[in-house]
């Protein structure tokens, strides 16, 4: 990282960080939920005003059950997969431990963090990535490696997330895994490649939202015998390596196509592959940092040369607003016009202190320690075993 970028990030930490003690007075808890969410309500990314039609695509890879703690537990924290990205954010907070809320929050990423209950109500029109990218000349598209029928997933994408296009039909693909509701999960490369093969040199600029559940708890390989005897950690490690190979192969295909593409990868939430004294493995009801701290990475394909030695690592605290901000900057001025565009976008990315929310309470990082605030504002110290990131 250049001195200028280090300085810029330091300034942003001072100037743009929403303080966790906002609204508190002497003798009160140092964190005020009302003050935090009031401040977040006023945060909205700039509306892009590109000078012409974009000459690149945007692909958002939203990966269920991809958490840093899971990768640690599976021995994959240092996987070479992330080295092919240009920027890697290691302190991204997904806010929630569940898929639906995570999808809604990402697709509303043009605005600040909402209370859990508020994500089920309409948001201001400027909060939806669909609206922002459409106005900038991108054609939205949706792709899943599953049928999206479990729970209210499709509704979470289209109605609550405001991402309008129906998912592309992929039912002719063979199943690679079986979901816990006995529905098929398609392999990631074949699913993404099916979409890519429909693209031509004259296709309009597209913003693709892709959701994969290949790592979801309770899945098993379609051809696995006595799959119920396979340890969760072993299946997770196998599935993660396969996922990373599929995504790498897809990005290689994009590179060979010559088409300029921005790839955004983000975890939905962690899997809770291992537990602790507060919450058992597999449980995600309390949004602890080992569940909500997930990878967020950016790669420009067929643009600038990748940095030698791997991506630029950014450990500043961010959440979905950072994704919305970066996409807004890229939609306004193509990152393929020069390195300074992406450098400036990363250097000025809006930061957000760690506040995770499940509707029943908040998990907050303040003064180096994690605390749980219940609905009545009662504060309880949490011993999570996590090393806080400053």
How is this structure best summarized?
The protein has 390 residues and is α/β, with parallel strands linked by helices. The protein has helices at residues 3-15, 33-41, 68-73, 99-107, 129-135, 153-160, 188-196, 232-257, 289-292, 320-332, 339-347, and strands spanning 57-63, 87-93, 139-144, 175-178, 184-186, 206-212, 220-221, 261-267, 293-301, 312-314, 355-357, 361-366, 369-374, 379-382. The chain is built from 11 helices and 14 strands.
Q: What does it look like?
A:
The structure is a single chain. With 390 residues, the chain is of the alpha/beta class. The protein has a single domain (3-354), classed as Alkaline Phosphatase, subunit A (3-Layer(aba) Sandwich), CATH 3.40.720.10. Helices cover 29% and strands 19% of the residues. The protein has eleven helices and 14 strands. The chain has helices at residues 3-15, 33-41, 68-73, 99-107, 129-135, 153-160, 188-196, 232-257, 289-292, 320-332, 339-347; strands spanning 57-63, 87-93, 139-144, 175-178, 184-186, 206-212, 220-221, 261-267, 293-301, 312-314, 355-357, 361-366, 369-374, 379-382. The strands form three sheets. Strands 3-6-1-8-9-2-10 form a seven-stranded mixed sheet. Strands 11-12-13-14 form a four-stranded antiparallel sheet, with no helix packed on it. Strand 13 and strand 14 form a beta hairpin. Helix 1 (3-15) runs parallel beside helix 11 and helix 10 runs antiparallel to helix 11 (339-347). The longest helix has 26 residues, at 232-257. The radius of gyration is 20 Å and the shape is globular. It starts with a helix and ends in an 8-residue tail after the last strand. The model is unreliable at 1-28 (pLDDT under 50).
